[in-house]
Write a structure and sequence with these properties.
2 domains; 7 helices; mainly alpha
Length: 134
């Protein structure tokens, strides 16, 4: 796990709010914001420059798997929807808490409905779209 994945959404949002203060017209506020941001990122072993570099050139996620028939069982005996939901949960930062709950629950379904399969396909499509925030 790298430092970027160890920062939760609330901490990242706070760091973003601090970074916004760097645009202030008051030099003292800019300096204080820079120090606060350096400390907040430093707790995770990051420097401001690293965050900017990573933001400009984010690491590439592997391409999404090809669409599969979610009703077919794999040779391991595990339903494809269970595997796909698990793969989506590995990128949980792309999903809201409601979507994460759905992904956790669908892994327990024996036969998901068409509507549930459509939702799962839409969530899995986010891998390729790169939606979401850190």
């Amino acid at each position: 796990m790298n430092a970027f994945t160890s920062i939760d959404f609330a901490e990242a949002k706070r760091a973003g709010a601090i970074a916004d203060r760097l645009l202030s017209d008051h030099e003292g506020e800019v300096l204080a914001a820079a120090n606060m941001l350096a400390k907040a990122l430093g707790k995770h072993g990051l420097r401001i420059g690293e965050v900017i570099e990573r933001g400009l050139h984010p690491p590439q996620l592997p391409p999404p798997p090809p669409p599969v028939d979610l009703r077919r069982r794999r040779s391991t005996g595990v339903a494809a929807h269970v595997v796909r939901a698990g793969n989506c949960l590995m990128r949980s930062h792309l999903y809201s808490s409601k979507e994460q709950k759905f992904l956790r629950e669908i892994r327990n379904y024996r036969t998901p409905s068409e509507k549930q399969i459509d939702w799962l396909n839409a969530l899995c499509a986010r891998w390729a779209d790169g939606e979401g925030e850190f």
